[in-house]
Amino acid sequence: MGLADNIKTGLSQLSLSMTDAQIDKSLNFLKLLCRWNQVTNLTAVSEIEEMVSVHLMDSLSIASFVTGRTILDVGSGAGLPGIPLALLHEDKEFTLLDSNGKKTRFMTQAKIDLGLTNVEVVKARVEEFSGSFDHIVCRAFRQLDEFVEACSRLLAPGGTLLAMKGPIEKGDLDQRHVHCELHELFVPGVSAQRYLIELRLPQ
After folding, report:
1. 3-state secondary structure of 111
2. Which residues contact 69 (CB under 8 A, 6 or more apart)?
3. Of 48, 72, 105, 128, which has fewest CB within 10 angstroms of its CB?
4. Distance CA 156, CA 159 (A)
5. What residue segments make up the domains of the chain, in order of their start?
6. 3-200: CATH homologous superfamily?
7. Model-level pTM?
C-alpha cells in the first residue's frame, strides 16, 4: 500500500476527509520535511512512512477541537500541528510561531511550495508576540503552566488553549484559574498514549 493510501486509511479512521489535492499536498509536505531533515535536523523521525502516523495523523487527531477561525501554533517547529491542520481546514487562518530561524525558514518554504494562502509564519518568541486567536495549540511546551502563562493573553474571548501531550505528568491538570478538560486521542498508527488538554479561561 502506498503512502497516499496510508493517509486515506488514517483519515478514514479519524472520520476526516480530504480531496486528492489535499492528500497530495500532505504527502508533499512530508517529502519536503524528509529532504530538509537530512540537512537541518527538524525532527527525530527520519522515515517518511513513520511521519505519516507520528506527524501527520498526530496533528490531525485534534481537528475536531479546532472549531474557530483563527489558530496560533506556538513553537510550531516543523509546522506541526499547524500545517497539516491548515491543509485540512482551508477556510481557517493559521499563524505558525517559532523563535528558531532554521525552523521558520522551513515552514516558509513549505508555505510557498504547498501554496498555503491561509498560513502566516512568524519568527518570534511568544513573549514578544501579540494578537488574538480563537485557539492556541502547542505540542512543544514541557510544562502546562508555562503554556498557560505565556499564551493566555493571546486568547480571544471564548477561545481555547490546546496542549498536545504524551503521558500526563503529575500536576498537569492542576491548573488554577482555568477550566481544564482531558481528552484521550486516537492516532492511527501510533500505539503510545496521546492526549489533548483543553483549557478555557474564566469569562
Report:
1. helix
2. 91, 92, 93, 134
3. 128
4. 5
5. 3-200
6. Vaccinia Virus protein VP39 (3.40.50.150)
7. 0.94
